[in-house]
C-alpha cells in the first residue's frame, strides 16, 4: 500500500506494527520537491504500482473502496486467459473507472513518458489545457463506451486525469484490456496484426462468484461479479466525511443496516480488539472531515505539476523484531 507522506511525517507506530503483523508491505511515496501538489498529481501516483515488477498482477483499490470478500478469483481469471492482463471497470460516465482496476506491471518509464508529454502539452494550450481530440496521445476513431454515455473525443469524466490515463494506457498503449460490465460480462480487447486494438470476445462471468458479505444493502446488489464484491464510497459519501457514526451504529444488530454502518462497525471492532483508543464522538466532533486536496481534480492541476513516478518508493519496516511480534 502506498501513502503520500509529508516531510517528517510517518505512519503511527502501532499502525505499522498491525500492518506488518497482517503480512502487508508498506511503501511510502516520497514527497515531490518540484511542481504543485494537487488532487490530480496524487491521483497519478496510483500508477506507481506498474513499477512493482516482482508481481505478475496488481489490484488497485482507492482508499474509499470496501471489499466484501476475497478477490483472488479476479487475479486467476486474468492469469488463465479468461480476461486480459489488464482489467478495468466500465463506469457510468467513463470507459475506465480509476477507483478499482487490475494491471500487469511493466516498465514505469513508459507511463512516465506519457505523463510528461501530456503535462508539457498542457502548458502550450489555452484553458482547459487539454486537447479533447488527442487526449493522452491517441485520436479516437472508434467510440469509447460507458454505461450511460459514449463518445469519440476525450471528454468523459476525468478524461484529463487518472481515468483518461488509465483508458489510454490499457487500451492504446498496452492494447490489452478487459472491460467489466455491470451485467456480469466482460469485453476483451487486444492487439491486432495491423497495430490497432480490436474486440477479441465478449465473455460471461455469471458462473463465477465469491463468498461475499451479501447482507449490506446498496447499489452493488444490482450488479454481478465482480462489481458486486466491493462498495465504492465515492465523492462526499465517505463514512468518515459525514459527521461520524450514527447514534445507533456499531452493534451486531445494526451492522448490516447500510454500508456506512458496516464500515463503522468494522472500525469499532478493530478499535476494541487492538485497544486503539479511538473516541468516535470526540474524533468527529467537528462534523465533516474534508481532505486538504479536495474531492476531485481540476484542469489547472496539470499546469506545472511536474509529476514524477520514477522517484523510488521507500519500504518501511517495524522498528524491531519485538514490534513485529506485537500482534502475532
From TrEMBL:
User: Which InterPro entries does its entry note?
Assistant: GNT1/Glycosyltrans_8, Nucleotide-diphossugar_trans
Q: Which domain of life is it from?
A: Eukaryota
Designated name of the protein:
Uncharacterized protein
Look up and give the organism this protein is from: Fistulifera solaris (Oleaginous diatom)
Amino acid at each position: 500500500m502506498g501513502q503520500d507522506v509529508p516531510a517528517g511525517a510517518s505512519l503511527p507506530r502501532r499502525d505499522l506494527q498491525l500492518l506488518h503483523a497482517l503480512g502487508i508491505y508498506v511503501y511510502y511515496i516520497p514527497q515531490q520537491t518540484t511542481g504543485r501538489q494537487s488532487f490530480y498529481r496524487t491521483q497519478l501516483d496510483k500508477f506507481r504500482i506498474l513499477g512493482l515488477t516482482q508481481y505478475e498482477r496488481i489490484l488497485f483499490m482507492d482508499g474509499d473502496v470496501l471489499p466484501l470478500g476475497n478477490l483472488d478469483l479476479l487475479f486467476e481469471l486474468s492469469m488463465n486467459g479468461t480476461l486480459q492482463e489488464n482489467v478495468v471497470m466500465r463506469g457510468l460516465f467513463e470507459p475506465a473507472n480509476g477507483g478499482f482496476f487490475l494491471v500487469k506491471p511493466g516498465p514505469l518509464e513508459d507511463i512516465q513518458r506519457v505523463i510528461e508529454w501530456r503535462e508539457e502539452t498542457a502548458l502550450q494550450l489555452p484553458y482547459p489545457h487539454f486537447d479533447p481530440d488527442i487526449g493522452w496521445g491517441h485520436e479516437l476513431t472508434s467510440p469509447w463506451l460507458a454505461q450511460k454515455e459514449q463518445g469519440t473525443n476525450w471528454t468523459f469524466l476525468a478524461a484529463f486525469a487518472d481515468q483518461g490515463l488509465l483508458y489510454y494506457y490499457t487500451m492504446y498503449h498496452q492494447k490489452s484490456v478487459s472491460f467489466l460490465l455491470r451485467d456480469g460480462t466482460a469485453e476483451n480487447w487486444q492487439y491486432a496484426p495491423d497495430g490497432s486494438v480490436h474486440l477479441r470476445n465478449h465473455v460471461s462471468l455469471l458462473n463465477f462468484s465469491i463468498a461475499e458479505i451479501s447482507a449490506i444493502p446498496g447499489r452493488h446488489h444490482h450488479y454481478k461479479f465482480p462489481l458486486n464484491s466491493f462498495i465504492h464510497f465515492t465523492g462526499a459519501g465517505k463514512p468518515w466525511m459525514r459527521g461520524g457514526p450514527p447514534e445507533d451504529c456499531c452493534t451486531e444488530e445494526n451492522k448490516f443496516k447500510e454500508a456506512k454502518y458496516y464500515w463503522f462497525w468494522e472500525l469499532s471492532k478493530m478499535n476494541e480488539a487492538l485497544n486503539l483508543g479511538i473516541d468516535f464522538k470526540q474524533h468527529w466532533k467537528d462534523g465533516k472531515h474534508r481532505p486538504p486536496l479536495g474531492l476531485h481534480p481540476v484542469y489547472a492541476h496539470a499546469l506545472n505539476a511536474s509529476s514524477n513516478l520514477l522517484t523510488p518508493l521507500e519500504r518501511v519496516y517495524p522498528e524491531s523484531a519485538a514490534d513485529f511480534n506485537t500482534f502475532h
